[in-house]
Amino acid sequence: MKRNTQSSIVIIGGGIVGCSIAYHLTQLGRRDIVVLDKGPLFHNDGASSHAPGVLGLVTGEPTLTKWAQYSADLYTQLGKFARVGGIDVALTDATVHELKRRHGLAHARGLPARYIDREECAELFPHLNYDGVKATLLHSQDGITHGPTICEAFAARCGSAVEFRANTPVETLETNANRITAVVTASGERIAADTVILATNIWGALLSEQVGITVPMLAAQHQYVVTDPLPLLSQETADVRMPNLRYFDYGIYVRQHQQAYGFGSYYHQALMVTAENVGKSSIKPFTPTDFEPAWALMQQQLPACEGSGFSRAFNGMFGFTIDDHPILGETPTVRGLWFALGSWVTHAGGVGRTLARWITSGTPDCDVHRVDVNRFHAHQRTENFILQRSSTHYRQHLQVIHPKEPWGAPRNIRQAPYHAQMQALDAAFDEFAGWEMAQWYGANAPLVEKYKADIPTRDEWGARHWSPIAAAEHLATRESAGLFNINGLTRIQVTGADATAFLE
Ligand SMILES: Cc1cc2nc3c(=O)[nH]c(=O)nc-3n(C[C@H](O)[C@H](O)[C@H](O)COP(=O)(O)OP(=O)(O)OC[C@H]3O[C@@H](n4cnc5c(N)ncnc54)[C@H](O)[C@@H]3O)c2cc1C
């Protein structure tokens, strides 16, 4: 007989994000929560079980960095974080400059970071080949965790407030009048709930499509290998003692696995997978030819690994959104349905805390504008857009990317009625919310001569994707007047009886 049950909150997905949300909800006094996973608990089908658990705390996005700092502290309290540090290695001048920026960024975010010399680097990571290395930056707060044991620790602290159920795939989301009402499992059990959280990451689209929501995200196959035990590491007894390494020149990172090294590589073509093609597990077969170039480079950087076989090699899948940020919050079209998709192990502690506060009080505990489920435009949910942008973010991961780098394909999605006139004025276009917007007009080049004394010089990096014409246009507008096309900026329409009061 089919069962009918009830719960205040249903969390679908028992990976690190689902477990973190459950834990943080109980910290705020919520009870009557059920976490359902289609596979076993807590070593299961998801990426949390396969990730090497590297936490690099510094990012360009303040909210993500705060979440990473909080997560590292939380995982430490849970006794599951080895704060071994992380070293950024620069092999080219371009990456030396990137390290300077990361050094500044770390300090701006309140994180220690300092350059280390060859000797100190050799002490911390004896097998790194320093020939050809131009700079090394140590982030002492970085470290390593282990997804399944964190999930277990979260679950243990939830006590009786949360029921964790393994082997319970959710097949259907039930809604009524734009509200979530229940989930139905594969065995036919209907669990009524007024809050349902989708923490299913790369499987997220399968359920969200049922309620008409396209998730602008795809799974990407990411290569990870662990060498055979290495003679030079035969004395190692700790799981991990050496810092993680990050090679921005190649998009490759390294961690120690006791007597072996693990290598994660973005140094291959983007292998994107739609939710329908993910399958039961987040692991796909290893594709050795994709790994060959990365492996050739890494044997030079860590000669201790030369000629080693692999004790493990796989293509693991996790989610890449169209703007490289998680997708969080209550969906606008199905009230009570919350998304918690596209997060990393690195941020999962903080994501859980923010989501729990948001669900409980209606307001998140930090600035969520870069991660909010409401941020997408219709054109960003098309198949082509999702494929192109998600794969761009995969390819660019751990690379030196200029913050003003113009968007690649797809372009010319939305054009102003006067686009041809802008072209005729030699507009330098970039994409904003799908619109082609001019950054400056070549036709205004003669203004530079007039204002050159007031136009600050920029260094090579600062001057990329910039023109003194933009500064001259600015100064000319101050002096007289100018006409700007800013149709890419978001307009918000507030309507209804309380609109004025709300705006006030
Ligand atoms: C090879 C590899 C290396 C990585 N390295 C790192 C790293 O070093 N640092 C880092 O921070 N991140 C890393 N990541 C990314 C990170 O692992 C993921 O982003 C993160 O684990 C996602 O957590 P999650 O809880 O959202 O999803 P998952 O861990 O994937 O969990 C989702 C869960 O939902 C369940 N589920 C799906 N559909 C249903 C359904 N219909 N009903 C019930 N249950 C369902 C699944 O069984 C699964 O257990 C790596 C990932 C991979 C694959």
Task: Describe the model.
It is a single chain. This protein is α+β, with helices and mostly antiparallel strands. It folds into three domains: 4-45 and 148-215 and 324-396, FAD/NAD(P)-binding domain; 82-143 and 218-321, 2-Layer Sandwich (D-Amino Acid Oxidase, Chain A, domain 2), CATH 3.30.9.10; 403-504, Gyrase A, domain 2, CATH 3.30.1360. The chain has 13 helices and 25 strands. The protein has helices spanning 16-27, 62-77, 93-108, 118-124, 147-158, 204-208, 288-301, 345-361, 383-396, 419-424, 446-451, 468-479, 499-503, and strands at residues 4-6, 9-12, 33-36, 54-55, 81-82, 86-90, 114-115, 135-139, 143-145, 162-165, 170-176, 179-185, 190-192, 195-198, 217-227, 244-247, 252-257, 260-265, 272-273, 283-284, 310-321, 327-330, 337-341, 427-432, 435-441. Strands 6, 7, 8, 15, 16, 17, 18, 19, 20 and 21 form a ten-stranded mixed sheet that branches. The longest helix has 17 residues, at 345-361. The termini are far apart. The protein binds flavin-adenine dinucleotide.
Produce a short descriptive summary:
The chain is an alpha+beta fold and 504 residues long. The protein has helices at 16-27, 62-77, 93-108, 118-124, 147-158, 204-208, 288-301, 345-361, 383-396, 419-424, 446-451, 468-479, 499-503, and strands spanning 4-6, 9-12, 33-36, 54-55, 81-82, 86-90, 114-115, 135-139, 143-145, 162-165, 170-176, 179-185, 190-192, 195-198, 217-227, 244-247, 252-257, 260-265, 272-273, 283-284, 310-321, 327-330, 337-341, 427-432, 435-441. The strands form five sheets. Strands 6, 7, 8, 15, 16, 17, 18, 19, 20 and 21 form a ten-stranded mixed beta sheet that branches. Strands 10-3-2-14-23-22 form a six-stranded mixed beta sheet.
